[in-house]
Specification:
Number of strands: 14
Largest sheet: 10 strands, mixed
CATH class of the domain at 177-214 and 293-425: Alpha Beta
Structural class: alpha+beta
CATH topology of the domain at 177-214 and 293-425: Peroxisomal Thiolase, Chain A, domain 1
Distance between the termini: 18 Å
CATH architecture of the domain at 177-214 and 293-425: 3-Layer(aba) Sandwich
């Protein structure tokens, strides 16, 4: 980077689990709530931001360019540009990287960037048959033509198409994301017990973090009925290995090992971070809490998309002269237990490292005590557009709490990509 990019502050909403119905907040609501709380505690005015960038994978039809919708509602004013980005699961991290690019180019000095999704509000769609019938009906010119169409209507036309299932299915390989996790479990011999143990670990660590007050980045929310939301509500104390073992495979009913219990949850949530250059720090008297050192993006076979963190973080380590052991804390987004465990196995696998990463041999073994110290998306949930920013923000809090210096946040991306961000605590 041509300029040092600093993290000044950050905040997120509680992550609210989808309960098979629209949640209490839209994506724009979530982004506005988190952003207002964050901006209110800053020494600058919202209209002094140079731009607002927000990642979102599933914006509602009435929230197009959701960044602009949220920016205006947060009080940034008419003259602050705002734009949305989309890179599937890494949309929030992409927003941060887009801010970095503009700051390095000299176009911005002070940026609000983050991610959001309200997956509980993903749309239900008409089937193609229903769409065609309605199109013919509405374009019919006479009552007789419309009446002639009525016998052609079929009740099965009313069966909805679940938008989130379509969105989580890769159109090139025809696999829903859980099936790509099954591929990795088979490839690296990761059994059901190991996956359930990792999932139980995620819940236990989130519960510990909640009890100890370590999730300090969360700001409370109030809905229109006066209900208050202060905690991530997907975590469960009864998600033990024994209880998780009772669940049936979800994506491969006969031979699979990936279940709803060892996968991330469908969730609503928003995350924001304030990024600044040295000039902005001086201008507004800001004290940074961290620095973004470097970012890397990578691509791989969509059928093995869960290994994206390996393909993104490895070149980042090499470019900065670091090994796995030089990182004080890791955040790898927990799309699936099998996917995170496969990343760990891939780094240990000499053949994989030689053939897929171009290394001379195995990179090494990642220290599990440094990985997702306070749990991850299996317990917290994975609001797709927000997760890439969440892992960066929480990683910084972990480093500051534990006295660590360097952290790596990495995420797999539907479609066969990976993103990684190297940060330093100050």
């Amino acid at each position: 980077m041509s300029k040092a990019i600093y993290i000044v502050d950050g905040a997120r909403t509680p992550f609210l689990k989808s309960r098979n119905r629209p949640g209490p907040f839209s994506a724009a609501d979530l982004a506005t709530i988190a952003g207002r709380a964050l901006l209110l505690r800053q020494p600058f005015e919202p209209h002094e931001l140079d731009e607002v960038i927000l990642g979102c994978a599933v914006p509602a039809p009435d929230e197009m360019n959701i960044a602009r919708v949220a920016a205006l509602r947060m009080g940034c004013g008419r003259r602050v540009p705002a734009w949305a980005v989309m890179r599937n699961c890494a949309s929030g991290m992409q927003a941060l990287d887009a801010a970095i690019a503009n700051m390095n180019a000299g176009r911005s000095q002070l940026v609000l960037a983050g991610g959001v999704d309200a997956l509980s509000r993903a749309p239900l769609l008409f089937s193609e048959g229903m769409v065609m019938w309605l199109s013919n009906f509405y374009t019919a010119k006479t009552i007789g033509q419309k009446l002639a169409l009525l016998p052609r209507f079929r009740p099965q036309y009313l069966a909805p198409v679940i938008g989130i299932v379509k969105g989580l299915t890769d159109p090139n390989v025809g696999l829903i994301m859980g099936q790509t996790a099954e591929n990795l479990a088979y490839r690296f011999g990761i059994g059901r017990t190991a996956q359930d143990a990792f999932a139980a670990r995620s819940h236990q660590r989130v519960l510990q973090a909640q009890e100890n007050g370590w999730l300090q980045e969360i700001v409370p929310m109030y809905d229109e009925r006066g209900n208050v939301y202060t905690r991530d509500d997907g975590v469960r104390a009864d998600s033990t290995v024994e209880n998780l073992a009772k669940l049936q495979p979800f994506f491969d009913k006969h031979y699979g090992t990936v279940t709803a219990g060892n996968s991330s949850q469908i969730t609503d949530g928003a995350v924001w971070m304030i990024l600044a250059t040295e000039e902005a720090l001086d201008q507004y008297g800001l004290t940074p809490i961290g620095r973004i050192v470097d970012t890397h993006w990578a691509a791989l076979d969509p059928a093995h998309m869960g290994l994206g963190p390996v393909h993104a973080a490895t070149p980042l380590l090499e470019a900065n002269g670091l090994g796995l052991e030089d990182i004080d804390a890791w955040e790898i987004n927990e799309a699936f237990a099998a996917q995170v465990l496969a990343c760990i196995e891939a780094w240990k696998d000499e053949r994989y490292c030689r053939e897929e990463l171009g290394l001379e041999g195995a990179l090494g073994e990642l220290d599990m005590d440094k990985l997702n110290i306070d749990g991850g998306a299996i317990a917290l949930g994975h609001p797709v557009g927000a997760s890439g920013a969440r892992i960066v923000l929480h990683l910084l809090h972990v480093l500051r709490r534990t006295g660590g210096r360097r952290g790596m946040a990495a995420i797999c991306i539907g479609g066969g990509q990976g993103g990684a961000m190297l940060i330093e605590a100050l």
